Please model this.
Amino acid sequence: MAVLCLSCGGEQTLMGLDIKDVRSILSNSEPDIFSELKYNPVDALRLVRRYPGGAYFMAQALIEGGDFFTAKDFLEAEIKYGKGYFADLALGEMLEQELKRGNRAAVIRGSAELFRDAPADPLEYSRVYGHRFEALLQNGDADQAQREMMSLVDTYPGIFVGPDLPHGLLYYRARIATEVSTRNHGNTGMYEAVFPYVYVSSAKSGHGEIRGILESSTMPESDKKERLVNLLRGKESIFAGRGSAALGFFEEALSPPTDELFIFQSRRIDEGLFHDIFAAARGSGEYDRGLRLLSALEDARSGAKGWNELDDRSGAKGWNELDARLLELQGIQHIRRRNPQQIPVG
Model:
C-alpha cells in the first residue's frame, strides 16, 4: 500500500493530495483511504486555515476508520484555531469520544471553559454540557453537577421553561436533582427539576434510571412522586408496545390534571403528553379511553392557575394541538365503528 505524506510537496499539496481536491475527498471518500496517510501535525493546522471545518471533517473520517489517536490532533487544531461553529462541533466530538473511552477527567478538564466566567449559552453548547454532566455523575460528583446546573438555570431561567431547550439538558437537570436529593435525604427543588423532563420526554433510555431513583426517594409529597412515576411508566409502556397499560398509567397520573402540565405543555406543543395519549390510544385501539383523557384535559384547562398569564399565541398553539388530537381520535373512532378493518391498530 502506498504511503501518502501530508506534509510533503509544499503548499500545493496537503495530505499528499492536490490541495484543491482535499475538500471533495474529505466529503466523498471512504474512511479506509485515510489509513494510507502519513501526516505531520502541522498539516492539521494547515487544513484548519485552508478550509473552515476541514480538520473537524478529517477527524470524523479518522474516527469512523477507528483511529481516534490521530483524530485527536485534528480535533485539537479545530478547537484551538478554528472558528465558531466548527470549533464547537470539534469540542463536542472530542468530549464524546473521551467519554466513550472512560476518560472522565479529560471530559471535565476539556469542558471547564463553560463556567470560566458566566455559564455559556445552553442552547449553543447543549452537547458539551451534556458530556460534562455525564462525566461528573459517572465520577461520583453529583454535588458539583448540581451546583453547575443551578448556576446555569439561574443565569438562563427563561430558556429552561421555553420551547427550545434540548431534551438532553432537561434530562440532566432531572437526573442530577433526583440523585442529589435521594443521596442527601432531601427533596429541595426536586419536583420542579423533574416535571419538565417528564412532561415532554419521549420513551428513550434513561427513564428507568430516573424512575428508579424517584421510586426510592423521600419526596414528602407522595402524590407528586407517584404522578411522575406513573407518567414515566406510561411512556415506557408506549415504547414497549403496551398502549393499554400506558393509558392506565396516564389515567392515574392525570386524576386530576396538574397546573404544571397545562403551562409547560403549551410551550412544548410538538411533544409531550398530548402526543403520548394519542399514541397509546392508537396503539391499543382503545379510542374511547384516549378521548376521555384528552377531553378531561380540555375541560380542566380553563381552571389552570396562571393560564391567563401565558402568551396568548403560545397558549392558542398548545390548545390547538390538543383540539387536533381530539378531532383525529374522534375521526378514527367514527371510521372504525363503520368499518373496523379500515384502520389497523398500531
